Amino acid sequence: MASTKKKLQLQERVPLGRTAWKLADLAVLSLLLALLAHRATSVLGSGGDPPPPWHWLAALVCEGWFTLMWLLNMNAKWSPVRFDTFPERLAERMDELPAVDMFVTTADPELEPPLVTANTVLSLLAVDYPAHKLACYVSDDGCSPVTCYALREAAEFARLWVPFCKRHGVGVRAPSVYFASDPERGSSPADDEQAEFLRDWAAMKSEYEKLVTRIENADEASLVRQGGDFAEFLDAERKNHPTIIKVLWDNSKSTPGDVGFPSLIYVAREKNPRYHHHFKAGAMNVLLAAVSHSAPTPLPPAIWLRPCTPLLAGLHPPPEFRRFAPSSLRAARQAISAAYGLPAARQAASVASNLCAAHQAAGAASASLRPAATHRSATACRYSPSRQRWAADVPPGLRTRVSALLTNAPIMLNVDCDMFANNPKVILHAMCLLMGFDDEVHSGFVQAPQKFYGAIKDDPFGNQMEVKFKGMFYAGTGCFHRRKVIYGVQPAIRDLEPGKIKGSPSYKELHAKLGSSRELVDSSRSIISGNLFSAPIANIPCRIEAAKEVSACNYEHHTCWGHEVGWVYGSLTEDILTGQRIHSAAWRSAYFDTDPPAFLGSAPTGGPASLTQYKRWTTGLFEILLSKNNPILSSILERLEFRQCLGYLVVYLWPASEPSFIVPLALFLMCNIYDFMEYMDCRVSARAWWNNHRMQRIYSASAWILAFLTVLLKTLGLSETVFEVTRNDQSKPDASEAGAEAAADSGRFTFDSSPVFILPTALTILNIVAIAVGAWRVVCFAGAAEFGPGAGEFVCCGWMVLCFWPFVRGFVGKGSYGIPWSVTLKAGMLVFAFVHFCRRI
Ligand SMILES: O=c1ccn([C@@H]2O[C@H](COP(=O)(O)OP(=O)(O)O[C@H]3O[C@H](CO)[C@@H](O)[C@H](O)[C@H]3O)[C@@H](O)[C@H]2O)c(=O)[nH]1
């Protein structure tokens, strides 16, 4: 009988009032429009006689651009909402919780140290969520035995760590962060529990230190020499190797009574120089496909078999299902052989052996069945494509288990390797949004903000994004997706288009979209037609070969992977583009900001890493803007809403909005005060505002311009874009000179000889020279107004010098704090050319 008990609301949408901000928005807009009108009448009013000066025309274009940017930003900020989530209300719905596959990506053991990845993984293994509904997959594009080793050791450590966290309600479950501070003391430090806790804490800390030593001392060459688990890495070159998949922990091994923790699987997808690997997007797609074969599940209590080869499909009456205990497979084979012949029995046995591999450890499966002899024949036995009726024939309740090899978790979480789960209830919070709407369309994906651990005070490199990061975008990490959304499925929008709900795609359609793996096609059908609550399945070890098949680098050829399915290719900011594709399919997303923050990552420090990261982001954003994925086209041709389109334009045009020096003083002040107040509103320091402000100037003069040129070259077919992995903070060699310097003054800008520094260096020189020459003219030609610069010029150049102050210091700095002479020389030549050009026109 259906339960009549009313379910408690899991989330509440709270509109955020911002009347004062809206008034300020409108005031700035009116000023801009007035200025634009004034400029336009002055430029156009003369009717071309005399022709307006070129710099007035340029100013008109710039002011028009700035007005457009202001309008786009106003739209994005106009009506913000907050979602309050109530995870405690899920307590009575624990059985309904869907399975979640957690994906972690890492790409370079030098830049992203294995210890950092291990900590991220440990924080995920220890979250508060039923362990058998979780699995953690690590994609290693670095194909590093040390990373694999670190994860194997982490899995071992998790046997102690996860029970410790659950027993003592540990807050932050990344051990490196947890053990960085003293143990939290309870209210009565003398009581037994407290004493026991302190004993446990000390023992656990010592275990963690041993883990750190093991990982830090691990050496690639000796691991590979060891063979065993690492034998496959022997001939593996980073950019040329077959797929390596290792099951580092299989949750089904947990014994009753164990606290248990999720399965952990290491995946280094196949790489071959002949195939583009599509960076992180490619890695995510391989996980997505590979994982759909190997998500965990409880073991089958019984197996239902029915031969349904094309040969036998037409039999009347149709062959029956037969129920067998996993331990009597020999009997099953004999019975089927007697009824339908030996080939059918072989196929049935093959399926059964796959299903029962997990029982083998207990000696349950018969040796004569040869597990997974040929999974293709097993498939033929499980599912008859010509009839497409398999699922309907299976007894209800057993369906997902019989198609065990086909099913997968309906929700996926993805995080970068340097971003640990900071709130152990993070998945429960996300579930409040994924399960908490009447209609699934409202939460195609659920994004937590990017926040940073141990971030340098006052954000000196302007990359912590506290103010900018509020919104609808998929940010590549800290995000939960419905798997069907990633498969490119459109939501069933009952209210919007009655009667137009899309039916399940046919087998043929899915085959064309997803590629030749029959298992993958079948598993996607179950996800597409199912809802959040379809049970996950297991049997990881015997699905490895099938997972390897879809991890091959040529698997995606002539399929829709990277376009209509999976993470989208063609931009270095695959996250924003993938989010846009999801929104274009009419899904909506929800943003959740928990207290404590859901995830914490690490922001790069130092000039080279920060500028490289911004250049990559900007390249990615321009790649989208100048391609067929442009949001304007998506809004015309697909279902991207107009305001969403404007929202995306804010992001894509962000690098091209450089306002403050091209509008008169009132606007200049107002914009800066507005910007400043936004930082105050987020309780970020005034210093951080200034740092962000000046870094935006620096980024726009360096990373953004180079990125634009890169995309221009790509569009003209002259070069390709490359994903330059951000150097992780902890990857700095501490003992080195650079490490010592960085530790001495972590917020100070550092330099190298990258071309990205040439333009800002040139701008700094130019403005210093302009001030010096201006001052000289004022002194020498005092009174002759036509020769002397005005106060405005001094203010603007002075402001520029202040913004580029890290470069001024760079002229006198030493080591990595100094601008290399090669950069200064090239910048000097640029300045010379510019001045020469200006004097001629
Ligand atoms: O070939 C590659 C390159 C990168 N990565 C992974 O991609 C992630 C992001 O790379 P990182 O260098 O850390 O870039 P960030 O600029 O720090 O990342 C931000 O920007 C990226 C591009 O927009 C998003 O994908 C990220 O989620 C977002 O945090 C990391 O886990 C990498 O290991 C791969 O798996 N394979």
Automatic annotation (TrEMBL):
Any Pfam family matching the protein: Cellulose_synt
Keyword Cell inner membrane (UniProt): no
Keywords per UniProt: Cell wall biogenesis/degradation, Glycosyltransferase, Membrane, Transferase, Transmembrane, Transmembrane helix
Alphabetical list of InterPro entries matching this protein: Cellulose_synth
Cellular component GO terms held in the UniProt record: endomembrane system; membrane
GO function term, MF aspect, one: cellulose synthase (UDP-forming) activity
Domain of life: Eukaryota
Residues annotated for UDP-alpha-D-glucose binding in this entry: E112, D141
Subcellular location: Endomembrane system
Spans traversing the lipid bilayer: 698-717, 757-779, 791-812, 818-838
Active site per the UniProt annotation: D141, D575
Biological process annotations from GO: cell wall organization; cellulose biosynthetic process
Keyword Transmembrane helix in annotation: yes
PANTHER family assigned: X-BOX TRANSCRIPTION FACTOR-RELATED
Name this polypeptide is given: Cellulose synthase-like protein H1
Organism of provenance: Eleusine coracana subsp. coracana
Lineage start: Eukaryota, Viridiplantae, Streptophyta, Embryophyta, Tracheophyta
Gene that produces this protein: gb15666
